[in-house]
Each structure stands twice: as C-alpha cells, then as structure tokens.
Specification:
single chain; about 375 residues; alpha/beta; two-stranded parallel sheet; about 40% helix; GDSL_lipolytic_enzyme; GDSL; Lipase_GDSL_AS; GDSL esterase/lipase EXL3
Length: about 375
C-alpha cells in the first residue's frame, strides 16, 4: 500500500477538490422500499447476477481507504450519520453509497463490503466486493498525488481476489461467477478537476482533448484487463456536468456561483470519446458487454429544477456552508438532509444516490444481458 509521507500538503490541496460523477437522473417514488433477497430490477430471460464488483473513486468506495495511509478518509462523524447504527464506515456520504444500493436492488445483499476489510467472510467474496479508493482516477498521477489505490492497484487486488475465490468455490464456478457478474467502474472527475485543472502537472503538457485521450486510453486498458481476467458485463460511468458541482460553482462560477460552461463542455468531450471507445471494444470482443452509462444530460435538469425530482436544494451540500466543505472540514450538518441532493459539497446524499441507482439499473440493466432488439 502507498504511504503519504512527503505529500501531505499537496494531497490536501487536491483532496479539497474531490468531486463526484453522480447526479439524480429521473424521479422515482420517494416511498420506494427495497426487500433484500428479492430483486427489484427484473432481468430479461430470468437471467441472474451472482455478484457485483466495483472499481473507482470516492463515489463508490465503501471503506478501502480506511486501511491505507492517506488523508482521503471519512471514517469519522458526521459521515455515516444515517448509516446502519449511525456508524462512520469510510463511505463518503451520510449513509449508503451506490455500491451498496446496486447490490441491494439486485437482491444480492444489503451492502457491498470493501475488499480490504479484514472482517470479510467467504460468503462476502462469493457475492462480490468493492475495490474502489476515494481520490482515484484514470490518470495514475491522480491517485499518486493523494496516495490512494490507482486502477492498476485495484486490478492487482482483483487478481488476488480471484485466487481466493478459486480456493473457495473452485476454478469452474469462479469462471461462471466472473462471466455473469456485474462490474461497475466509476471514476474520472478527479482527473479533470484535480490533476488537470488543479495543477500544472498535466495542463502544461496536454490540451484538454489530448488529456481526455489519455484518460480514455487508461480506461480502455483497464476494462480490457478486466475482460482478460474473465469479466464480461462491465458498466462504465461517464462524467456528469462538472461545472455544476457545488465546489466548482464556488471556485470558478463567480460571485453568483453559476455553472461553469467550460467544465461542462469538457465533460461532454470525454464522454463522447469514452462511449466511442467502449463501442469499439465491444466490436472487437464478441463476448463483451461493455456499456457506457450516461449521467450527463438529465442531471442538468435536476440541478436547475430540484423540486421536480423531490429535492429542495441542489446548489450546495448539507455539510457546513455546502460550498466547499468535505471530509475533515465537515463539522456540522443541516437539519433537513432529505431536502438536499448533496451531502457535502462533492458527494450525494443516500436519498439522491438511491434514486439515481434505481434509474440507472432500470435503464441499462437489459443491455448487460442481451443485444437489441432481442430484449
């Protein structure tokens, strides 16, 4: 694991810009209840998803950063105030995060545990674990700056996991689990806001189109690495409208904190390149179901019209002033968290995550199972 010695000052600068690539998409019932053990999302052809594996950054990290030396941690209050028992677990929200909600909606289990959690049991491994690390990105430099687990580190942990799984269920069943499981990749925002715009380390060498190419190239290598290890159903999130994230509105949006158009344009450029690359990979690998998961267009409407989606406030977070606070800066919280899209100035509330995850699975799940127009 990586240490943070000699990097604390720079790490803090970059961590304060930690962003999220999740927003609310479409409205669903606010009284929506989930029953673990019965899939909420019905799969075509009575297919099954035996396990879920998640890679990426703080949007989906369920506690891996607790076990490495980095300042990018949130295993203290008020994080987790609405989690089971009000316990801070290293999740960057007030409660559950998308990793948990995906397995919940698929009826697999109630939480997706961090792979580095020393209390993991054999059954946890069989039904999926989480390899994500808050602060990570496609660009290896992004992870290195804040001493967190890069995508390469996460892939190595996945290889280790596969060996453990083989020891539990054998080679044949391991192969079946990997082929039919759902893999989710969520990262990229830290590359854009921190590594590219937050310093001269990359901006002095790349214009944004060429840096987007670097990100896509890294992502392409990563998902093909997953494929080589046996994964077939791989969903990759695009970037949200980064210019409308509270932190960027505060830092770059002027006195009125408007959305930053240039940042949104950059998100769109990356998304276009990422989608095209995944389509190309699918054409080359006939068994691949690599799906680009778009989270750009509808979120713009959510940010501008939160009431239509069951929220009251979307331009600031519940924590502190809601304009810049995250992690150790988050000392106090609002009294009405259910009104907020954002928990801190970068991460969503559990309520917002739950709505988002339901819509994403409802919209895209069939694409992992079969090809159009057959389902």
């Amino acid at each position: 694991m990586k240490g943070s010695a000699g990097k604390s000052s720079m790490a803090m600068q970059f961590f304060c810009l930690e962003l999220f690539p999740f927003f609310v998409l479409l409205s669903v019932s606010l009284s929506f209840l989930v029953c673990i053990g019965e899939s909420v999302i019905k799969l075509p052809g009575n297919d099954t998803i035996p396990a879920v594996f998640v890679f990426g950054d703080s949007i989906v990290d369920t506690g891996n950063n607790n076990y490495i030396e980095t300042i990018v941690k949130v295993n203290y209050p008020p994080y987790g105030q609405d989690f089971l028992g009000g316990k801070p677990t290293g999740r960057f929200s007030n409660g559950k995060v998308p990793s948990d909600l995906i397995v919940e909606e698929l009826g697999i289990k109630s939480l997706l545990p961090a792979y580095l959690d020393p209390s993991l049991q054999a059954q946890d491994l069989i039904t999926g674990v989480n390899f994500a690390s808050g602060g990570a990105g496609y660009d290896p430099l992004t992870s290195d700056i804040v001493s967190v687990l890069s995508l390469s580190d996460q892939l190595e942990m996945f290889k280790e996991y596969i060996m453990k799984l083989k020891g539990i269920v054998g080679d044949e069943r391991t192969s079946q689990i990997l082929r039919k499981s759902l893999v989710i990749v969520v990262t990229g925002s830290n590359d854009v806001t921190n590594t590219y715009f937050g310093s001269l380390l990359r901006k002095s060498l790349y214009d944004f189109p060429s840096y987007a190419d670097l990100m896509v190239s890294s992502g392409s290598s990563f998902v093909q690495g997953l494929y080589e290890l046996g994964s077939r159903r791989i969903g990759v999130f695009g970037l949200p409208p980064l210019g409308c994230v509270p932190s960027q509105r505060t830092l770059k949006g002027g006195l009125t904190r408007k959305c930053v158009d240039s940042y949104n344009q950059m998100s769109q450029l990356f998304n276009k390149k990422l989608s095209a690359e995944l389509n190309l990979i699918n054409s080359r690998l006939p068994e691949a179901r690599m799906i680009y998961l778009d989270i750009y267009y509808i979120p713009l409407d959510v940010i501008h019209n939160p009431e239509k989606y069951g929220f009251g406030i979307a331009n600031i977070g519940c924590c502190g002033t809601g304009t810049i606070e995250v992690a150790f800066l988050c000392k106090c919280t609002c009294s009405n968290v259910s009104e907020y899209v954002f928990w801190d100035s970068f991460h969503l509330t559990e309520k917002a995550y739950r709505l988002l995850v339901h819509q994403i699975l409802k919209q895209y799940m069939k694409d992992f199972i079969c090809e159009k127009p057959f389902c």
